[in-house]
Design goal:
The chain has 311 residues and is mainly alpha-helical. It contains 18 helices and 2 strands. The chain has a two-stranded antiparallel ribbon.
Length: 311
């Protein structure tokens, strides 16, 4: 009969993000048939008692476990991809999944440099024989289409110079558009967010706070795409910290979970140190500690190795 501590270890190995491979090897590999039967009997969250008197895997749990076994492989494949290919494939996958994944397109369009975004668009041509812009326009409807096409088409100025008086004026423009309702339908809002440099937009963010008394993203709670656009452009480390923390919560759906791999792989060479600092500021403990507590096995080890790269 399987020992209680072994059953508990196996349950833990099958839960969370990734799979604790060494636990499976050390315990399952030496179990005899009666011990495996005891495990099946004692794991109603994994197995169902069949009407023909045997314990069978819950099909839904098998599907979930396949995703967990794949996490390490997917992380390694993404990490070894050229960044242009990686972003092109992430954008294509987001378009296939629909509105709940459009934030990934915003993330790519707004947190990459002008050259990185241009490279992703070039890779998209090679991989899919379409432009990213035309696929975004084809798959997305309404006001969201205009915003997202403008964002993925952008090639922003990346210098430090901007006119503060223009930033202040455009902060007022954004404030008025938000007060009037449906700012995503306002052409001036889209022009500002899709064409202005990031230093210019960060100055707008500051002036908006002075005008309205709160941050612009706080006034955009009713419009998630615009809210994520502003966060990715103006406060990307805060945005990524929140995405990472949400991905590591218990019982979140699989697309939310996948953000843990995506964010760490895509930011490890860019601003991971700043993200780690921001995560600690927001949640009071380190990102590495949260990953230690949440992820398992080779997947956990790989993520910890990546986030350690930035110091």
């Amino acid at each position: 009969m399987a020992l209680p501590d072994e059953l508990e270890a196996l349950t833990n190995a099958f839960s969370g993000h990734g799979i604790h491979e060494q636990t499976l090897i050390s315990i399952l590999g030496k179990w005899h048939p009666e011990e495996r039967k005891s495990f099946r009997k004692g794991s109603p969250n994994l197995f169902i008692e069949d009407e023909r008197n045997f314990e069978r895997w819950d099909d839904h749990r098998v599907k979930l476990l396949k995703h967990e076994f794949m996490r390490f492989k997917n992380a390694v494949v993404l990490w070894t991809m050229h960044p242009w290919e990686r972003d092109a494939r992430l954008a294509k996958e987001a378009l296939k999944k629909g509105p709940q994944s459009y934030g990934i397109i915003i993330e790519i369009a707004c947190t990459r440099s002008a050259e990185e975004l241009l490279g992703a668009r070039r890779a998209y041509h090679s991989l899919f024989d379409h432009s990213m812009e035309e696929d975004v326009a084809q798959h997305i409807n309404g006001c969201e289409r205009k915003l997202l096409v403008a964002l993925v088409s952008a090639y922003r100025y990346e210098g430090s110079k901007f006119r503060d008086d223009a930033a202040k004026s455009e902060a007022e423009t954004l404030s008025n558009a938000i007060k009037n309702g449906k700012p995503i339908e306002d052409d001036e809002v889209i022009r500002i967010l899709a064409t202005r440099s990031k230093p210019h937009l960060q100055a707008i963010y500051k002036h908006y706070m002075e005008i309205s008394g709160q941050n612009i993203d706080e006034d955009l709670d009713a419009d998630l795409l615009l809210k994520e656009t502003v966060q990715c452009l103006c406060t990307p480390q805060q945005y990524f910290s929140k995405v990472l923390d949400m991905a590591m919560q218990k019982d979140v759906e699989k697309n939310t979970k996948k953000a843990l791999t995506r964010v760490i792989v895509t930011r490890a060479d860019t601003d991971m140190k700043e993200i780690k600092d921001e995560y600690h500021n927001q949640y009071g403990f380190s990102l590495s500690k949260k990953i230690e507590d949440t992820a398992h096995g080779n997947y956990k080890d790989f993520l910890l190795t990546l986030i350690a790269r930035g110091g």
